[in-house]
Known about the structure:
The structure is a single chain. The chain is α/β, with parallel strands linked by helices. 41% of the residues lie in helices and 17% in strands. It has helices spanning 2-24, 44-60, 73-86, 102-110, 138-153, 194-207, 225-238, 250-262, 280-287, 302-313; strands spanning 33-38, 63-68, 90-93, 115-119, 132-135, 182-188, 213-220, 244-247, 272-277, 293-296, 321-323, 328-330. The strands form two sheets. It has a six-stranded parallel sheet with strand order 2-1-3-4-5-11, sandwiched between helices. Helix 2 (44-60) packs across helix 10 (302-313), helix 5 (138-153) runs parallel beside helix 6 (194-207) and helix 7 (225-238) packs across helix 8. 43% of the residues are buried.
Amino acid sequence: xxxxxxxxxxxxxxxxxxxxxxxxxxxxxxxxxxxxxxxxxxxxxxxxxxxxxxxxxxxxxxxxxxxxxxxxxxxxxxxxxxxxxxxxxxxxxxxxxxxxxxxxxxxxxxxxxxxxxxxxxxxxxxxxxxxxxxxxxxxxxxxxxxxxxxxxxxxxxxxxxxxxxxxxxxxxxxxxxxxxxxxxxxxxxxxxxxxxxxxxxxxxxxxxxxxxxxxxxxxxxxxxxxxxxxxxxxxxxxxxxxxxxxxxxxxxxxxxxxxxxxxxxxxxxxxxxxxxxxxxxxxxxxxxxxxxxxxxxxxxxxxxxxxxxxxxxxxxxxxxxxxxxxxxxxxxxxxxxxxxxxx
Length: 343
C-alpha cells in the first residue's frame, strides 16, 4: 500500500513539474497575432498577394487571423472591429477605397493596436491613426505608362510618329492623321480606390506637357476581366480610330483583348496596349505581341508585412511609406529573360 502511495505522489510531482515547466516556456519571438483583412479574390494578382501573406505568416510563426471582405468596405470595417475585440497585436489591411476609415482607425488607436496599411493607400487627415503604408507606388506606375507612350510615338527628332501602328487593319480602323492627337482610351480601376486615382493622376501628370496625346474616354472596369471585356465591347461600338488602350490592371486588359479579337482587331498592332500588374498571363500576351508594355505591380508583400508587423508588435516605429521594388517590361525587351511571375 505504501508503495502505491509513493508511486502516486511521485507521478503527481513529475506531472506538476512538467506542467510548471511548460507554463514557464517563453513564447516564440514572432508568435504574436496579426489580424489581416484582404479586399477579395478578384484576380490572379490578388490571389498571389493573399498567398504571399499567408505563407509568410506560416514561415515566421505569426498567428494570422485572415478575413476576406469580398469587395465591400463595410465588411472590412466589421473585420477590423472584430480584430480590436479579439485584442490582436497588430492590424493590417488592404483598403478597398481611400475614404471612410477615420472612425474605425480611431477605435484601433484607442485600443493601442498599431495599424499597417497595405497595397492601397488611404486619404485621411490624421496620419497618426495608422503606423505606416507598405505597397506599390501607383502614381509612378501611371507615370511609367505615359513615359513608354512618349517613347513609342516620338521619333529621334522629337516629332510625333504613327509608324508604330498598323496602317491597314482587318477591321478597317481609320488611323489618326499626321496632325491629329494620339487617341487614348483608359480602363480605370475601382472608383474611389487609390490605384484608380493615382494611376490616372500619374499618367496625366506626364502627358499634361504633350498636347499630342488625348484621353478620349475613361471608365471604371472594377479591375475585373469580365468588365474589361464588356467595356471594350461598348467602347468599340462608340469610338473609331482608337490608338491606345491604357488599362489599370491586367485583368481588364485581358478582357479587352478578348473583345478586340472577336472583332478582328489585332491587339498590340492595330491598337497599342499598356497594362499594369505583371501577371504571367499578361507577360505571355506581351510575348505574343498582344500587349506592348506591362508596368509591374508587385503582389509579393507578405514577407515585408510580417517584418513590419513584428517591429510594430515590439513597440517600434516604422517608416511612414515603404514601396515595393517593381520593373517595367516593354515590347523592346528580351522577353525570354523574364522569369515566370508566379501569378
